[in-house]
Amino acid sequence: MSEHDMKLVVVGAAGRMGQTIIRVIQQMPGVRLHAAVEREGSPFIGKDAGELSGAGFVGVPITSDPLEAFLHAEGVIDFTSPAGSVEFAALAAQARIVHVIGTTGCSTADNEKIAAAARHARVVKSGNMSLGVNLLGVLVEQAAKALPASGWDIEVLEMHHKHKVDAPSGTALLLGEAAAAGRKIDLAAQSVRVRDGHTGARSEGTIGFATLRGGSVIGEHSVILAGEGELVTLSHSALDRSIFARGAIAAALWARPEKPGLYSMLDVLGLTR
Ligand code: NAD
């Protein structure tokens, strides 16, 4: 450990991603666990964050007081819930510390509140923090641009574990946005999120989504470009949650010297579409 290590708070410390991030912080140079936060009433308050995550004792008891936790910290890593991330965005902006948000399922109103906080704070938000998915987004945009909407239909297929609460996944929406950017269309106006019953034929130019849930799948995504007589499939498989944790920690380190603003993983990774 060095005195220059970035002091990070993990909120949602008992969650699937929270525990993974705590383990990865112990392995990555340049960062240290400053505090760990869980929701009020969680059975894990007071437990050692390292022991809970399987990383071994780290001397950081889980607290339900984010204000205290953010004091003297330099960054917050947040994979919690939309309501939690909106609350933490205001607190991180007050504390003038970096806020990395991996939470998905945020509404337009939630995103507006997070963007308002980013006027005073360095916020990095992305529906997927992995290098592979962000590269896939760049490739999807190129493919959508190259293949004409008149002959090529775009469908986004995803599968996740049975505990996931939002659909389509943040990653599926990120890939849909990339395809829409390639086609220069507005995703919200052109997406088909559900099909059921007598739907009629597919409308040209739309982007369709299909969601599968089951078992312990960490994240499978495919973007299918379907033409007459041929299919192009661009896909990504997440085999381990540490890909998101490493990306989130890299985002915190990247944002440390930046000016206040709302950034994405494309900025962090230097990927331009
Ligand atoms: P999870 O349910 O296992 O963990 C969430 C944790 O956050 C829980 O322990 C919960 O108690 C805690 N929490 C929720 N609201 C809180 C609050 N207000 N204050 C303190 N703690 C709070 O879920 P998970 O699988 O770890 O996923 C969490 C989020 O991250 C989801 O939105 C998921 O879609 C997203 N996710 C994003 C990426 C990415 O790369 N961006 C990758 C994986 C998961």
The ordered string of helix (H) and strand (E) elements is EHEHEHEHEHEHEHHEEEEHEH
Q: Which distinct ligands sit in these coordinates? A: nicotinamide-adenine-dinucleotide
Strand order of the largest sheet: 3-2-1-4-5-6-12
Shape: elongated
Oligomer: single chain
What kind of sheet is the major sheet?
7 strands, parallel
- Poorly predicted regions are none
Q: Output mean pLDDT.
A: 97
Q: What is the number of beta strands?
A: 12
Query: How many alpha or pi helices?
Result: 10
**Helix amount:** 25-40%
Structural class assignment: alpha/beta
The proportion of strand residues reads 15-25%
C-alpha end-to-end distance: 37 Å
Please provide a written account of the structure.
The protein is of the alpha/beta class and about 270 residues long. Helices cover about 35% and strands about 25% of the residues. The protein has ten helices and twelve strands. It has helices at about 15-25, 50-55, 65-70, 80-95, 110-115, 130-145, 170-185, 185-190, 240-255, 265-270; strands at about 5-10, 30-35, 60-65, 75-80, 100, 120-125, 155-160, 190, 205-215, 220-225, 230-240, 260-265. Strand 1, helix 1 and strand 2 form a beta-alpha-beta unit. Helix 6 runs parallel beside helix 7. The structure holds nicotinamide-adenine-dinucleotide. The site of nicotinamide-adenine-dinucleotide has 27 residues, from helix 1 and helix 4. Nicotinamide-adenine-dinucleotide binds near residues 79, 81, 87, 104 and 129.
Fill in the keyword field for this structure.
273 residues, alpha/beta, seven-stranded parallel beta sheet, five-stranded mixed beta sheet, binds nicotinamide-adenine-dinucleotide
